[in-house]
Structure formats: C-alpha cells, structure tokens
Amino acid sequence: MNALRIALLAGSLFAAPLLAQTTDHDPVAAVDPFIGTSGEGHTFPGAVAPFGMVQLSPDTHVGPARQTYNWAAGYRHEDPVILGFSHTHFSGAGHSDLGDFLVMPVSGDSVPLEAGDEKTPGFRSRKADEVASPGYYAVTLTDAGVRAEMTAGTRIGVHRYAFPAGKAAHLVIDLRSIIYDYPGKILWSSVRIRPDGTITGMREVRGWATPRRIFFAMRFSAPLTGHRFVTTEKDILYKGFKGPGRGPETLDALAGRALVAQLDFGALTQPLEVKVALSGVDEDGAIANLESEPGDFDIIRAKTRTAWAQALGAVKIDAPAPMRRNVYTALYHSLMAPSVWSDADGRWRGPDDQVHAGAGFTMHSTFSLWDTFRAEHPLLTLIQPEAKNADFVNSLIASQKNSPFGILPVWQFGGKETWTMIGYHAVPVIADACLKGIRGIDCAGALKAMVASADYAPYGGLSDYMTLGYVPIDREPEAASKTVEYAYDDWTIARLARHLGDMATAERFGKRALYWRNSFDAKTGFLRARKADGSFRTPFDPTAINYGSDYTEGNAWQYSWFMPHDQGGLFRLLGGDAKTVARLDAMFDYDNSKIDYSHAEDISGLIGQYIHGNEPSHHVAYLYSYAGQPWRTQERLKQIVDSQYKPTPDGLAGNDDLGQMSAWLVFTALGFYPVAPGSNEYVIGRPFVERAEMTLPNGQRFTVIAEGLSDANRYVGRVTLDGKALDRGYITDAEIRAGGELRFTMQATPNRTWATGVKARPYSMTGYEKQ
C-alpha cells in the first residue's frame, strides 16, 4: 500500500465520524422519498413543500395498466420509462386521479407530440440515476439526454433541464394526460401566450371529483424561439389569434378537449428553468401565485429544504439507521396533506364551484378523512403549529358552509367532494382539535356544522340509523360498517357538546354513540349487518370481503373491534378479558391459507385476519392493553413493525392513504397511539426508537427515552413520567403538552403486573367490569 493510498484512507477514517454525526442529526437527510413507491404504498418521489399545493413528480409510462389501482400516484419505482412530470399527485391514495399539466423535455430537431409506447417512438424516455430528498427530485432521461431536476414551493413547482450541448431544446406540455383515464376525462382546456411570454391555461376534468377546474401559469429562464399549439380532437372548437409577425400556422391561443403544446428554445448554453404556479380560481390567480414566491431554482429549493428541516425537526429521533429512516420518512409522508388550496390572495374555489374570498386563514383541501382521522390528524395536533391545525379545521367548516348539501367533507380534493368512503369523519378531526384546546377555531360554530352532517338524513342510511338505531343492509350497502363508524363519530359530537356545555346535544349523541351494540351479535361475537326487520343477514362468513357488501374494505374480523370509544362495553359482550384476549389472538393467528383476497385491492399486510395495509385494523393491537395484558400489545406491535415497514421502495405494506399508515408508525415508534381520538388519551404501547424529543406547538418539549431497547428487550419493564412511576396504560394529551420525559425501561421478558388493573386501563365510554 503506497503512501498516497494510506493518506487517503487515513483521511477517510477521520472524516467518516464527522460526516456520520452531521447526517445523523439532519432529519431531511434521513428521509427516503422512494419508500412506498413500489409494492402497495402508492407514494410518489417528486418535489413538494410541506402541505404544498404543487406535487411535482414523474409519471411513469405503463400503457393500459396506468388506469389501475397500482398507479394511483402516477409512478412506480420499477417502471423503466417516464412519461413526463406533472404538478399534482396524491401521496398513497387508494384511488387514482390528478396528474395535471404534464411537462416533458425533448432535444433535437424532431418533436413528437404523443408519448408513444413500446412499438411507437414518442416523447417518453427511459430513466436513470434517480435522486430524491424532501423538496427535490432529479433523474436522467436517457433517450432525450436531459438531466431533469424538480423542486417546489407552496404554490409553485420549478423544473430545471440540462439539455445536450448543441441540440435544440423543446418542451412538450400535454393537457390531455391524467393519471386515471376516465371516459371523456377532459371537459375543456385552454392554453395561450401572454404578451410578456408567460404561458397560461386551464383544464376542467371529469374524474373522481367532478367537475374539477385547475389553472396554471408558466415562465421560463430563456426566451421562446417558437411554439406550436395543437388539438388532437377531430373538430377544433376554438382557435385563438395570430400574433404580429407570426406564421399563419402559429396560434397564440387554443382551446378544446385534447390540447398539446410544443415550446421551442433553440440550443441553450445553460440549463432551462421552468417555473409553474397553480390556482383553483383562475389564470390571474396562477400568475399572482407565481409572483408570490420569487427566486430561481436554487433559491426555491433552499427555502423548501429549510421548511422541511423545520417541520421534520419537530421530532428529533435517535435510532438505528434503518428505523430512523423509516420513522423520518413516515413523518415526511405525514406532512404532505391536507394541501394548500387557496391562492396567495386568499381566494379559493369551493364545493359549490364558486370562488370565495379569503376568510382570514389558508384554505386547505385533500382530506382523506376515513383514513386520517385515526392517527394522521392527531399527530398533526402535536407537531404542527396551532395556526396550521386551525387552518385544517376552519377549511372543513368553510367547505360545509359552502356545500350544496350543507355537510362536512367526506373525501375532498381540489375543493370538490368525491363521496368516497363512509362515515362523517371530519367530525372527530374537529372534535379532537377543539377538545385539545387548539386556538383559532370557533368550536361552538363547529359543533353546529358537525350536527348538521350527523343529522343529514339522505346521506348513507342516516335516516334509518336515526330511527332504527342501525343502518339496515337491505336498504344500504356496507351497513354494519356504517353503523359503528357513525356511532364513534356521534360519540365525539357528544364529547365536544358536553365540553361546551350543550347538554341536550351531548345526551342525544351520547345515546347514538351506543348504537354500535345494535349491530353486534353476542352469540357469534361478531359485528353483523341487520335487515330492516331486525334480523341478521344470512348466510354469514366473518372472513368474507366483498365491496358493497356488509363491510367497508374489510370483514367482520376487523370491524368487530371498531368501537374505539367503548371497548369496555365490547368486552362485556365478548365475555370478559380472557375471552377478549383469546378472540384477539384468534384474529392475529388465523390461518388464511384457504382464503383468496386477490379481488380486494386494499387488503394487504395480513397477519392472520389483522390487515395492517388498511385502516380498520390499525388500533387493534393496542386492545390487549384494554383487556389488562399490555405485554401482548407490545408483542403484537413488534410483529407488525417488523413485517409491515422497511426502508425500501416496497417498504409500506399498504397504501399510505395521505399519511395514515405513516402516522401509525410515528406514534408507535414513540411508544403511544391515539386509539380513540376525542378521548384526549394515548394508549401506551412500546417504543421503537432509543430517544425522541418532540417540540410541541406551545414550545414545550416532550422526550421519550427507551433504556435498554434492543431486539431482545422488546417488553416494557417500567414506565416513568417525569421521574415518577406511571402505572397506567395511557398518557393524557395534557401531560404531553406540559412537556417532560416519558421513560421506558425495556427488558427481555414480559412484565405481567404493569398497568393490568381496571383503573389503569385507557378510556371506555361505559367503563370496565371488575375482574
């Protein structure tokens, strides 16, 4: 070994610890946006700011299969070809849509205006050397010879393209492309060049939320040398005007249902930057949004990186590298939605399709509420400023006020309702925030909006629910699930009403909160769908999963545990603690070898009949603690975390659902989980990180420490809160917000005496039987 080689090696040895120390405390560097972009995760790797309106990310070309569930985010890591870069995406949704305003660079003399496929050349390109971090994405388009980079601000996305030297640079803007190819998908679109060279346009889309309008404004770091606007419709419905000095074939504006634009820049000596802003209001709003975030690519990238460092830095984590990467990436995925929807001037387009003026807060949309009420929104109340959480709640209430039906959002994006999933789960989000004392919310006014939704008889069998005490299956699909989800939502209404002193509303909805019992069959020990005549529907198979049947994306095994507000009442029907634990074990240990769930897209991450890849199961592992056996919760959590999360593209067992799968991991890694949002309690599980420090909205710091944590030491031996023994299986929201230290002492064997007594158990509406 020569002297130079020894010197280089010595230098690397001295430098490595310093590098590791720097990286270990940088939460942005710990995030891997490729986690969940393969398998069942449905995440995207592109650039987005925290809760940003723009999600600038690649869409991969997969032919006809692009319409399917697996491409809900428009991208899969294993796909070799990129179709282009569009500006709107869902992170981990179980449904496809978006992909607005696809942009693709092309180099050379020939500019195809179709993407092409395996047999026909087009503007699509093979990919190489992908890189992603929060707020940044880059890839080499090998066919075009272009290095493409993306970053994003709150309402803007910025592209940077390094074209081959000496070759003409072009952009293709495809207004026809959409992630899910609905029939008649583009109702209308337009594109035009403004006198200052700004390109603006819009499209109105028939899709999941329909009709949905979105507008854009686009500027460039180099002047256009030419352009071509083309419609691929047979009949051109509108042509724009010819500008002075332009050829007879050049249009400065075009409108129709199938538009594509070619923009020419000639041979460039430096990378081309393309700055794009979106608006749900109009083109002028998009221009104003463009001007509201000044700066070039590097300035926007640095600003967004700082925003991510601040948002992720709300939780400082010490853990082995794989777990740290998993948890920080989960935290990152939890901070993408709900996304900003109002323009910089405060205007926004509502569910009534009308434009509304600013209301003193930033309007947000993209609410996947059936998923996110469980852990995502409770997490945000702890790690985001009060003003941001107030924005979320006020956005829900503003949508209700401007809804044609006068009810809160169900599953909303782009300001429009999809009516997807069940329940009225904006209600627990609002109640949880108000009961935690989040400032900036008119909670009395919010209660009125909650009651209006819960009393809207035409929605999802509510008329029968209010008169019969359950939703009848012969009149409404998924009736068993709807009954118990309505009952939980009603309990949160009762909780907030009591908190506000409205005892009449509290009593009325407190009674409705117990309606879950009306669909529970004590003889079989399962939640079952009942007919209007009161009989249970037969035949009954607790493992059957069929969409539109008795249950929503699940079966009796999962839904028989969904009364998070009244586990004590459930345990009495099951016959007590021992029989409850046996039933939980039967669920996790069930032999699925003879069951085929291939027809059910959302059913993934199975551990017996526990299905971690979908939300109805997410609280179930914590229920052992309600039955006085918290060490069994600790065992199951270890089983789930080890099998359902890993720091790879296929590292999420199920679709992330706008952050819910990720929020489950963040809470679980910290050692506690909100089984019943609205109770102001978190059930203690076991930590998966050695140390975590949360900076709370009030400025207090709450620290979790796991002494002796290892694969062998998987059980909780002792818990202290601020140095004092904590002998109960829950911690309150007020205790966390007060700051302090939650310390776990881990050990290799179960502690069968800690937090087992009835008084040590988490909240239940009707309490527990003495054992």
UniProtKB/TrEMBL annotation:
The molecular function GO annotations come to: hydrolase activity
Q: Does the keyword Hydrolase apply?
A: yes
- The residues covered by the Glycosyl hydrolase family 92 N-terminal domain are 31-279
InterPro entries the UniProt entry points to: 6-hairpin_glycosidase_sf (IPR008928), GH-type_carb-bd (IPR014718), GH92_a_mannosidase_put (IPR005887), GH92_N (IPR041371), Glyco_hydro_92 (IPR012939), PNGase (IPR050883)
Q: Where is the Glycosyl hydrolase family domain?
A: 286-747
Keywords for the protein's UniProt record, in alphabetical order: Hydrolase, Signal
One matching Pfam family is: Glyco_hydro_92N
Its domain of life?
Bacteria
Q: Where is the signal peptide?
A: 1-20
Q: What is this protein called?
A: GH92 family glycosyl hydrolase
What species is given as this protein's source? Sphingobium rhizovicinum
